[in-house]
Amino acid sequence: ASGDREVTLLDYGAGNVRSVRNAIRRLGFEVKDVQNAQDIVNAQRLIFPGVGSFGHAMDVIRERGYVEPLREYIEANRPFYGVCLGLQLLFEGSDENGGCEGMGLIPGCIQKFDTAMGLPVPQIGWNNLDQRRPSRLLQDVGDRRVYFVHSYRAVEQPGSEEWVLATTNYGEDFISVVGRGEVYASQFHPEKSGTTGLGILKAFLQPEGDVYEASTAPMNGHMRGLAKRVIACLDVRANDSGDLVVTKGDQYDVREKDETAGRPVRNLGKPVDLATRYFQEGADEVTFLNITGFRDFPLADLPMLDVVQRTSEGVFVPLTIGGGIRGFKDATGKEYTALEVASAYFRSGADKVSIGSDAVYIVEDYLKTGIMPEDSSIQQISEVYGAQAVVVSIDPKRVYVADPGQCPHKCFPTALPGLSGEQYCWWQCTVKGGRETRDVGAVELAKAVEDLGAGEILLNCIDRDGTGEGFDLELVEAVSSAVTIPVIASSGAGVPQHFTEVFAKTKAAAALAAGIFHRKEVEIQSVKEDMAGSGIPTRL
Ligand code: 1PR
């Protein structure tokens, strides 16, 4: 009967659960959405992917009358899997949103990670599970890492031990998996944890089945803890005949050098195919940048939404989409908020959106007036989807300074002096894909967007882009030590050692490359092996 393959999904519309749907389908099951409380009562197995903030989630499930049926379902020990916030809601309450009550099934209260520990918050990335007791769910996981993204966490306390299946260390031990009988929940996202995550979901959905292919993934060995991430980036735009292609520039110039051929847009492949290849080759995340998004209206850009949708069907690691995330007025004069634009991408399967030009305009205004904006694109999206869903992408250029006393921007000493022997520099932000410089420094921008609610910085560097000379370590160190949110180093990777170097010498949490992967000059696996061989925690 088809009912045997049915999974009931509690999606209350607060964020991206498309990846959970895709993962369930990939495992050969069908999704049935909860429309009313009776659907919870009737479920054979229920998955609850909590998204958004604790308070909002509790309000919605309370208004819809789901709290009691859920509590009864769980207390009757029927098959349940809560993801992320879906774990947190089982506890007594949370400090998030000024304090709110949870379902009260597990003793303890959810609190924010302490930034005083010096680790980036949110925790974003791949970390280990320290299993407290054997369980069917985690039987095949061992040392393999899974993907977390969260600012709040539960810690063990008297009474929680009967629930705790695994903890994870991020400056301290927090509860990463709970389980009792047929009821499970995990702080990490199995649907974003590659084949290891699919294996965990399969163990839940099909208790009698064979272990998933995860069993062939290598173990991570002795280097435990949050891994430094390796990200593959695909710059996407329409070529001259209007097809979306992956392109790649040198210092942001994406056209072929040959004048006689009319300098066509470089074509390095098809977006969905390439993204899928990078997932299979072990990329920890995949990023798409719609590099002409700043001038087109993204909601009219259906091919891009379609690319995201098709990619998310086969790529089970986090997916970021950037380009054109801002408020728009279309040809008919109808206005769209940045939140509406971002929501279209989240609904299509993006896990994060990345804001470029608009962040520069927002911060320029903020620094000039000293007045904190109230409804900027960063704030709108962060409030609804959470800080972890908002990346700010910076496209800076290095500016040399002879006398820092004469420069209105914060200057940094440099070991790479300028052409006239200048010993100082700052990094100037640009907009519109590097076409226009603005009067804001990259370090100031990063700090300001952190205040506004961005959860991560994607730090490009126009001087290094496509050069293969390595990351601008001075830039990466200046920005990553100025903020507490994670920083992704980007631009200039030429060999695996460049990744190892940026992790050894700066506080970067992740490093991204494009050209070397597209041209198959370097394999993701070689990058990971070099990092691991140098003692950097790596997801192999
Ligand atoms: O301004 O919000 O519409 O966002 C536009 C986005 O598109 C920004 O994130 C901006 O970085 C990006 N973008 C715009 N123009 C270009 C271009 O190349 N002409 N690409 C561009 C950015 C930089 C990286 C690249 C790394 C690594 N490309 O994405 O992948 O530099 O490259 P490498 O490993 O080959 O050195 P908005």
Give me the secondary-structure topology.
Blueprint lengths: L5 E4 L8 H9 L3 E4 L3 H6 L3 E5 L3 H10 L3 H9 L4 E5 H4 L2 E4 L5 E2 L4 E7 L10 E5 L2 E2 L14 E5 L1 E2 L10 E6 L3 E8 L2 E4 L7 H12 L23 E10 L5 E4 L23 H10 L4 E6 L11 H11 L6 E4 L5 E2 L5 E2 L1 H11 L3 E4 L1 H13 L7 H9 L4 E5 L1 E6 L10 E2 L10 E8 L4 E6 H11 L3 E4 L13 H8 L6 E4 L5 H10 L4 E4 L1 H4 L5 H10 L7
Parallel strand pairs: 1-2, 1-3, 3-4, 4-14, 5-7, 15-17, 15-29, 17-18, 18-21, 21-22, 22-27, 27-28, 28-29
Antiparallel strand pairs: 5-6, 7-11, 8-10, 9-12, 12-13, 13-14, 15-16, 19-20, 23-25, 24-25, 25-26
Helix pairs in contact: 7-8, 8-9, 9-11, 14-16
Describe the model.
The strands form 6 sheets. An 8-stranded mixed beta sheet has the order 2-1-3-4-14-13-12-9. It has an 8-stranded parallel barrel with strand order 15-17-18-21-22-27-28-29, surrounded by 9 helices. A 4-stranded mixed beta sheet has the order 6-5-7-11, with helices on one face. 27% of the residues lie in helices and 25% in strands. The protein has 540 residues and is an alpha/beta fold. It folds into 2 domains: 215 residues, Rossmann fold (3-Layer(aba) Sandwich); 262 residues, Aldolase class I (TIM Barrel, Alpha-Beta Barrel). Strand 19 and strand 20 form a beta hairpin. The mean pLDDT is 93. The two termini are 40 Å apart. The chain is built from 16 helices and 29 strands. It binds ligand 1PR. The site of ligand 1PR has 33 residues, from strand 15, strand 21 and helix 10.
